[in-house]
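In the current project phase, our protein records have gained a structure token line. A sample record follows, to show the layout:
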Amino acid sequence: MNIHYKIVELWPDDHLIVARYWTDKLTEEMLASDSNRKENGTPVRCRTDISINLSVPPQEGEELDKLIIKNTPFKWLEILESVIDPNVNTDTSHIVSLVEVKKTIDENTFKKVITPPIMIVPELQESEIEELLKGLKN
């Protein structure tokens, strides 16, 4: 997947930019949030427009590019590409009955869900470690 991006707005008073992202399969036009267009014909707003705070002083050149790249909604673009792929099952009918259904979790449940389990690493003998290191060198 090739991801394209550009700065579409600069808000100096708020010290932020708005970056727009799209892919080869998901054009700016497909991602437009409404029918409003700029003078050059591009959408005024896209669903992938992201507000990005600048540092003080603001990033330049490669650092600015890195900042924009770090804010890429990569996973969401992947999902959107899957949605338009007729070979991928994107059926959400099983969720319809869950819309507006209130659910509650307690703090312990929340922590169990978001906290990765502790990984237990077995103790290795020195010879086993050396064997693993040899494998890495090859």
